[in-house]
UniProtKB/TrEMBL annotation:
<comment type="similarity">
    <text>Belongs to the flavin oxidoreductase frp family.</text>
</comment>
<keyword id="KW-0560">Oxidoreductase</keyword>
<dbReference type="Pfam" id="PF00881">
    <property type="entry name" value="Nitroreductase"/>
</dbReference>
<dbReference type="InterPro" id="IPR000415">
    <property type="entry name" value="Nitroreductase-like"/>
</dbReference>
<dbReference type="InterPro" id="IPR029479">
    <property type="entry name" value="Nitroreductase"/>
</dbReference>
<protein>
    <recommendedName>
        <fullName>Nitroreductase domain-containing protein</fullName>
    </recommendedName>
</protein>
<dbReference type="GO" id="GO:0016491">
    <property type="term" value="F:oxidoreductase activity"/>
</dbReference>
<feature type="domain" description="Nitroreductase">
    <location>
        <begin position="15"/>
        <end position="166"/>
    </location>
</feature>
<dbReference type="InterPro" id="IPR016446">
    <property type="entry name" value="Flavin_OxRdtase_Frp"/>
</dbReference>
<keyword id="KW-0285">Flavoprotein</keyword>
<keyword id="KW-0288">FMN</keyword>
<keyword id="KW-0521">NADP</keyword>
Length: 256
C-alpha cells in the first residue's frame, strides 16, 4: 500500500541516515542559501521565527566545538557546520521597538526550541534532496556556555544543536526504527503492547547491530537505552537563566 503513494520525497525520507564522513568537495554558496531558504519555510509558531543559524567556518572555532562535543571529528571536517540557536533576542527587540515588553516564559522557551528544530529538519531534507548528507550534533550542549561565548550569543539565545553537511563519503546501513504500533496511538495512549513491540524491536536491532559490527556487537535497543541513562546530565540551567530564559511556568504556589 505504501508504494502506491511513493514519490521522490517519500523515498528520500524513508532512506534518511546520518552521515559523518564527507568527500573533499565543497557545498556551494548557492546550495547553502537554498537549504536555508527551505529551512525558513518551515512552520513557525505564530510566525515568530524564533531561531538563528550560525555558519562556523573558522578552523579554531571548529576545533573547539568539536572537542566540547566529545571529540567529534566531523565537526572539523565537514564542508559546512551550522549551529542552530533558539532565538528570542530578535523577538524581544521587535516587541520593544513596537512599544511593548516581553517576559520570556517557559512557553516561549519551548516555542523557540520547537521552531529551530522544525527549521533544521527542513534544512536536512533539502540537503539530502541535493545528494548531500548531514548529521545533527547534540553534543554542543555538553558545553553550552562555552559555545555561546565562542559565538558571542546575546541574551535570550541558546545553541540547541549543530549540523554537519557535505557530500557523503559513506553509505551506512539504515538503522531500524521502532514498530509503528509502538509510537502511534488512537484516541488514547496505549501501553498494552509495549512489552511485545519492544521485545520484537530488540531482536531486530540486535540483528542490525551484529551485522554492522561483523558479529562483534551483542546488544539490543533496550540495552543501549539503559546505557544512555548512565551519561552524566548536562548542566546548563544556570546558563539559560543568565540568558533570561525562565525555566518555570511563572506560577507560585498559593495557600488556599
Amino acid at each position: 500500500m505504501l508504494n502506491t503513494f511513493s514519490n521522490e520525497t517519500i523515498e528520500a525520507l524513508l532512506h534518511h541516515r546520518s552521515i559523518r564522513r564527507y568527500k573533499n568537495e565543497p557545498v556551494t554558496r548557492s546550495q547553502l542559501e537554498l537549504i536555508l531558504r527551505c529551512a525558513q519555510q518551515a512552520s513557525s509558531s505564530s510566525h515568530m521565527q524564533t531561531y538563528s543559524v550560525i555558519s562556523v567556518t573558522e578552523p579554531d572555532k571548529r576545533r573547539a566545538i568539536a572537542a566540547w562535543a566529545g571529540g567529534q571529528r566531523h565537526v572539523e571536517q565537514a564542508p559546512v557546520f551550522l549551529v542552530w540557536c533558539a532565538d528570542l533576542h530578535r523577538f524581544d527587540q521587535a516587541v520593544a521597538g513596537a512599544g511593548g515588553q516581553f517576559e520570556p516564559s517557559l512557553e516561549y522557551f519551548l516555542v523557540a526550541t520547537v521552531d529551530v528544530s522544525l527549521a533544521a529538519q527542513n534544512a536536512v531534507i533539502a540537503a539530502e534532496s541535493m545528494g548531500l548528507g548531514a548529521v545533527y550534533i547534540g553534543g554542543i550542549r555538553n558545553e553550552m556556555k562555552k559555545v555561546a561565548g565562542l559565538l558571542e550569543l546575546p541574551e535570550l539565545v541558546y545553541p540547541v544543536f549543530g549540523l554537519c553537511i557535505g557530500v557523503p563519503d559513506e553509505q551506512p546501513d539504515l538503522r531500524p526504527r521502532l514498530p509503528q504500533e509502538a509510537v502511534f496511538h488512537e484516541n488514547r495512549y496505549n501501553r498494552d503492547a509495549f512489552g511485545q513491540t519492544i521485545e520484537a524491536y530488540d531482536k531486530t536491532y540486535h540483528t542490525y547491530a551484529s551485522s554492522r559490527s561483523g558479529g562483534t556487537k551483542d546488544t539490543t535497543w533496550s540495552i543501549e537505552m539503559r546505557g544512555r541513562t548512565k551519561y552524566p546530565p548536562r548542566q546548563y540551567g544556570d546558563f539559560l537563566r543568565d540568558q533570561r530564559f525562565k525555566l518555570d511556568d511563572g506560577q507560585e504556589d498559593q495557600d488556599d
